[in-house]
Amino acid sequence: MDDHEYRSLEGLINLVKTLRGPSGCSWDREQTLESLVPYMLEEAYEVADAVVSGEIGQLKAELGDLLLHVVMSAVICEEAGAFSIYDVIEGISDKLIRRHPHVFGVKARLTPAEVERQWEAIKAEEKGDEGFFGSIPSSMPALQTAWRIQQRASEVGFDWPDAGGAMDKVVEELEELRKALEAGGRDDVEEELGDLLFGIVNYCRLLGFQPEAVLRAGNMKFMKRFSRMEEILREEGYDLAGADLQVMEDAWNRAKED
């Protein structure tokens, strides 16, 4: 098979099988489903970064990296006699048809919110006794998990009528945290911190923001300003280890102005 023949889904599958074959790559051959998990998660986050940056060329490359891990995981399962990539494709295709009856069954014009409720209702029927939150992955980051929990609860009407109620709850949780700090009980402080974070995620959601994206943007802003502060300190003959807090704060304020 020449290089051109690898440039298709079928070709990619064969390429991965070659890499894992006897004459392939030792690294690829030793990979397992478990060993690939951290790489797959990393690639998913790199896809998210590319979307946020708006770099379409980078997004194309990162989607390719993520696809590679999906294909390799499926090939490993095929080697074990469990299922193939074609079973994966068939499964997701069947699911999409089942969960879009307004498209593939009796035609109906639904709003995005109605589509989401219908999807979750069909999903719950399929899952049976899994539990209301059973489909939320336990390994998902806590911030994203909180958002998903709240989103799921809102689908059955368990929600604030508007963002104002969520903001009042944040203020209430902040006061409870203050009282816990005054009492000095570490376990209570930890619990109240959790409640406060959960409330802030809820407020973000009701304002229409993804908390993960909001915090990611905040992280990037802090790092950008901190790097500029470091440049300013260096220009003034300081390094981070040698500058006291007041000097750093002055440089930080200049970095904000820049």
Written overview of the protein:
- The protein has 258 residues and is mainly α.
- It folds into three domains: 3-89, MazG-like (Helix Hairpins), CATH 1.10.287; 140-209, Orthogonal Bundle (Helix Hairpins); 213-257.
- Helix content is 73%, strand content 0%.
- The protein has twelve helices and no strands.
- The chain has helices spanning 9-19, 26-30, 33-53, 56-79, 85-98, 101-104, 112-127, 142-154, 163-183, 186-206, 211-235, 245-257.
- α3 runs antiparallel to α4 (56-79) and α11 (211-235) crosses α12.
- The longest helix has 25 residues, at 211-235.
- The chain starts with 8 loop residues before the first helix and ends with a helix.
- The model has no long low-confidence stretch (mean pLDDT 92).
- What is the string of helix and strand elements? HHHHHHHHHHHH
**Average pLDDT rating:** 92
Helix and strand composition category: mainly alpha
What count of domains describes the coordinates?
3
CATH superfamily (homologous) name of the largest domain: MazG-like
Spans with pLDDT under 50 lasting ≥5 residues?
none
* Tally of separate helices: 12
Major β-sheet, in short? none
Q: Could you tell me the strand content as a percent range?
A: under 5%
Number of strand elements: 0
Q: Tell me, what is the CATH class of the largest domain?
A: Mainly Alpha
CATH architectural group of the largest domain: Orthogonal Bundle
What does the overall shape look like?
extended
Helix content: over 70%
Overall radius of gyration: 25 Å
Kindly report how far apart the N and C termini lie.
55 Å
CATH topology of the largest domain: Helix Hairpins
